[in-house]
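Input sequence (345 aa), recorded before submission:
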Amino acid sequence: MDFSSEPGPKMGACIRGRAKASSLSFHESGSHLFVASEADRVLRIVDCLHGGTPSDRPQMIKLQREGIRIVKATHHAHCVLFSPGSNNGPTKNSVFYLSVHDNKILREFEGHHGVISSISMSPVDDSFLSSSADRTVRLWDAGKSGNSICELKLPQNVEGPPLASFDSTGLVFGVTAKMAGDEGNHINLFDARNYSAGPFSEMQVKRHDIESKLRASGSTPERAYALSRSEWTSIDFNKSGKQILIGTNGGVAHTVDGFEGTVLHSFQTEGVAGGLPLPMAACFTSDDQSVLCGNNDGTVSCYQADSGLLARKLRGHVDRVGCVAANPKYAQIASSCTNTIVWVW
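Predicted structure, token format:
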């Protein structure tokens, strides 16, 4: 996806919503996009080939009882994984397997005792990862009800909730956790076929390294210090596995070396944000060439992954862009505020 040459991507479809999106997930076929909105407990489905409403499934599903915050497409075209929302009452700390064809929950995966912080579907089979504020990461089989396949518990010398994600091969998954004393974050890599042996790679992303990178890119010492302390909210591997993208709740995202853990680039959101800190939307494009970042001013910044330079800025949203995603099969990207835009070349 070349963002530097003209004319660049254009708005292919705009799907209007009533509340801000909380999660986006493309199906592996690239034919449709799932849009979750925690505030109004709605899951929307977008036809990426024709725009608008799909013909073979409902456009919108209301999850009034469970709510919805995170959605992840599965290998089945009509089924998704989702975590409940936190609006209007206590949150149930389960992951659900939903058939969107008939709006039925087929399975419930119980075991976590804290809010779900991430869900990651394996690209090669029906296994998936979930992480939680209860300081555990669990591996499940989406095709079977019952207990998790395994549970990884954080050691006592780390803090905060973990995050977990498969890489593009499904052979490796990464787990992050905050280092004690606010010194930075761990990234541990596991062999998905031999996870019981422990991590085969243990990397440390030090806070002062992030601070140095931010200062080198023009941030004031005070701002660099504050941003370096931002809580990590997402982890994503690029297709080659050479870079890992970290999103935070402080309006900054980082790419780190997938083998050494060194900080490569930092990307700051643009525009003024009011209220509490919100997770920064960021993702790799499917060709590994670019990093997309949502901004508070309603734009999407498109950076070159290798150089970290801004290649283009997309305009079209009326409010903060809280979610971005890249189509795995077609030259498309998606971004959401209240409305969801599918950008095409």
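Checked by second reader. The chain has a mean pLDDT of 93.
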